[in-house]
């Protein structure tokens, strides 16, 4: 018989007992996790830890999502390790869309970690850098939306709005100015909902871009070109075609929107007659002017005057709200119009011309509604008129013809947006401030798509930054990389010594 003194303390029965205890404990934990998940599925209510992590869809988006019955795929084509590209926020937003409609599938393709899968995505969707467009720069940070054979994508730079912010140099002796891109607005929900809605209605509307009078081209990628403006139009589910009205050419009946962007030569009489007739039939017009046509009568001015606006032959200077000598920062928006979501943001316009409401002596029988959308500050002056006292000048104006009972136009009810600047939508400036956002709102108002206007706003971005010096940063590195791991090792060594004794 074995002496109890010499009985082994870790016998086979003890090992079995310890193993069984671990198995039972693990099963208990898994059971609790399973029950919590089951209850969560049965009685599911989301809650948010703070306003900074909150991703909550608007009622308008939820209404649109509930109407989608086709299967949609959202692909986040992103570098998931990049700390500045808002991937975590976009991923959380996509999950909200998937939770609201199970027909939506979400996947992530990290083009840095999984280049093989990234190549498949590029070829599948003909992204820039694929075999279909080998000369284009490679794609980076895109959100791709697909439904059946149709797809579209939004570049990450269009989802988050930034502004340049001056920062303190790392070295106090350094005298050069340093700047960083500070995020100020998140347009994820606007972009997601508009793309999904466009894919649910796969037939795009047609827009025509007037040419033949020195207008910039939608294919021009130089700074004064409109390539990015054209991309913004395409992202709003518009198929844009160039149009010349010379000879017998007419404005096609499938024209949902006519765009006239800063002609530098006058239109001839037949062209103006066709445009006038188009508007009388209920057409939609997006007209852009700029300071270079101050001394030129394009012929559009009298037509617009009959619709209730004057294009003033002068440009606005606003020294207290300017960047340099030319760029005017516009912060005054009409809160009762479709630009209400921009009230916390701003536009950057280049020497804009005032677009002023006509003060009719005798109003027509059915006068159109004229709304001034954006205006300069009340300290603005009109260049060339030094005697005029400072005042606010309207720079963008909207015109709408209200329907008349018993009267129907072949194209609908006339809607017009007139802006006193065209450069704020060129390749160089369209990404500044909320310029691109204005395009989205203006296009959807002109096309009478209220589902993309009401209740879906840009979300402001709030940052929490810890300002520390270089020495403090070094101390923090030593604390995190040395002191904390080292203290754990010391405690482990002390425990080993105690047990050894």
Notes on the structure:
30% of the residues lie in helices and 22% in strands. The protein folds into two domains: 59-180, Glutaredoxin; 204-454, Rossmann fold (3-Layer(aba) Sandwich), CATH 3.40.50.880. Mean pLDDT is 82; it is low at 41-53. Helix 7 links the parallel strand 9 and strand 10 (284-288). The protein has 501 residues and is of the alpha+beta class. It contains ten helices and 22 strands.
Based on the model shown, name its key terms.
22 strands, 8-stranded mixed sheet, 501 residues, 2 domains, Rossmann fold, alpha+beta, Glutaredoxin, 22% strand, 4-stranded mixed sheet
Unreliable segments of 5+ consecutive residues: 41-53
Radius of gyration: 30 Å
Determine and state the CATH class of the largest domain: Alpha Beta
Oligomer: single chain
Q: Characterize the overall form.
A: elongated
Residue share in helix: 25-40%
SSE arrangement:
Blueprint: H1 12-42, H2 59-66, E1 72-77, H3 87-100, E2 104-109, H4 115-125, E3 142-147, E4 150-155, E5 160-167, E6 178-186, H5 188-200, E7 205-210, H6 227-235, E8 238-243, E9 255-261, H7 269-280, E10 284-288, H8 300-306, E11 309-311, E12 316-317, E13 322-323, E14 327-330, E15 332-333, E16 347-350, E17 355-357, E18 369-375, E19 381-382, E20 394-400, E21 415-419, H9 435-446, E22 459-460, H10 470-500
Parallel strand pairs: 1-2, 7-8, 7-9, 9-10, 10-21
Antiparallel strand pairs: 1-3, 3-4, 5-6, 6-22, 11-17, 12-19, 13-14, 14-16, 15-18, 18-20, 20-21
